[in-house]
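As the next step, I selected for study a record pairing a protein sequence with its backbone structure tokens, which the following lines show:
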Amino acid sequence: MTKDIAVIGIGTTGFRATTPDLSYRELTYEAAKKAYMDAGVEPKQIGAFVATSEDFCEGYSIADEYSPDQLGAVLKSIYTVPGDFIQSMASGVMMLKSGLYDIVAVQGLSKASNMITKPYLTDFALDPIYNRPLKEHSDYIAGMEMNRYLYETGTSREACAQVVVKNKRNAMTNPLAGHGCELTLDYVLDSPMVSYPLSELDISPYSDGAVVIVMATAETALSLSDKPIWVRGIGWISDTPGLETRDWAKAVYAQMAADMAYKMAGIRSPRSEIDFVEISDEFSYKELQHLEALRLCSPGEAGLLTLEGATEITGELPVNPSGGCLGVGSILECTGGQKILDVVLQLRGEAGKNQLQDVSTGLAMSWRGLPTTTGAVAILSN
């Protein structure tokens, strides 16, 4: 399994708080059409499709049965990963490396605005004996983790608030983002408390949207695209689902997924070999926790780097130049898709006002959200 794999097409609807004018099928169709046009392929040329969906989020049993029509995948090989987009991407990479197919498409979707009772759905992922009967809002889990992370690393709430300020500002110049705004540090710190020390503005809002990417083996990619983005490494890990036995201060899943991706990519010094990152920040502290888990800085250093401006678009290690989940929105199982999309745009030089200079390698990292400890990492180069 030594074949090189490249992303040759990307398509998205963009991301906004609500899409009353579009069904979830229409969102997928729009993203797929744009991705196929970008790749210069017809659906009939694609050998296999991977859909990303979770029945609880979609509101339909066996939701993937609704994927073939809008993807152009009728009577083709298609299956669903009920996880994150980067996990689906990993499945597509393995399909291509195995030699089964030359071209594979991967789809991710969020229609979060259809979900009236998201916290109750999250409760179904909790242990039915020990945790669910507590009947607490699921954000208390994030509050507990944030509290432990700040305590063990010496990170301040100000550093977490600066993540919010930075990412919301970045989103203002990203036309695909739906939650950009200009905030002050004090305004974020003074926002209503949800579960100490987690406040309302530490939590990313939800967005609707879809992403489709087209990947191909090297020979096919070079024949179809003059700007292939190479998948150098990919990794994914699930830690324990139990609240009682996990590490509350460290994102062990992110560290192990990154190590898997680094090994595949041949990366030995992440800080010097990776130019920028798009990482999961559903909660402000998660950006800092993930930066440290990815070995891009030492434990307790991420907050200091953020306060010093090192993670700004103009900094030495740009983090979430797209605006991240805090600025783009939390898009459920499609979160990793947004990360991949924006890494590809940066490496192509197509990120508009948020374009970074002289970048050749980017990292995308996703976390599946509460109450999981599941993460995935992909490393891409131009």
User: Anything to note?
Assistant: The longest strand covers residues 208-217. Residues 24-39 form the longest helix (16 residues). The mean pLDDT is 94.
